[in-house]
Amino acid sequence: MTKMIFVNLPVADVAKSTAFYEAIGFTKNEQFSNEQASSMVWSDSIFVMLLAKPFFSTFTPKTIGDAKTTASALFALSFDSKADVDTITDAASAAGGTEPHGPEDMGFMYSRAFEDLDGHGWGPFWMDPAAAEAGPPEHQPIVEA
């Protein structure tokens, strides 16, 4: 079976968040969506579940954080070109998202950042395929846990 990832995000307004994610290129899977949740498809193996905060709270006893003021995760998506990175980030801004900082171009890798309507952070990036195969450049430190 193909490995898949389902990112569950608490949102204030499922309909508005659904429209935002559709505007940046996700597709809504109607089969797994209702007024409490939208299943947003990025690829055959990556899905984002937009869950109304009361519904999200049924999955955890923890307090739901406010992603507009607290960061606990950032989600990165790879793209085939710098232009594709720009396209999704510009679409996010046009759909009501924010861009917390400008582009970062390290030559072998290009990235931008945006936050959705609820403050969830996304980092679209492009990496030169040859650079990715060769590994990180010597001047870039590798942080190990």
Automatic annotation (TrEMBL):
Q: Which residues form the VOC domain?
A: 3-127
Molecular-function GO terms, alphabetical: lyase activity
InterPro entries (UniProt xref): Glyas_Bleomycin-R_OHBP_Dase, Glyoxy/Ble-like_N, VOC_core
SUPFAM superfamilies listed in its UniProt record: Glyoxalase/Bleomycin resistance protein/Dihydroxybiphenyl dioxygenase
Q: Coiled coil located at which positions? A: none
The record's keywords, sorted A to Z, are: Lyase
Q: Which PANTHER family match?
A: BLR2408 PROTEIN, BLR2520 PROTEIN
Protein's UniProt name? Lactoylglutathione lyase
Lineage, opening ranks: Bacteria, Pseudomonadati, Pseudomonadota, Alphaproteobacteria, Sphingomonadales
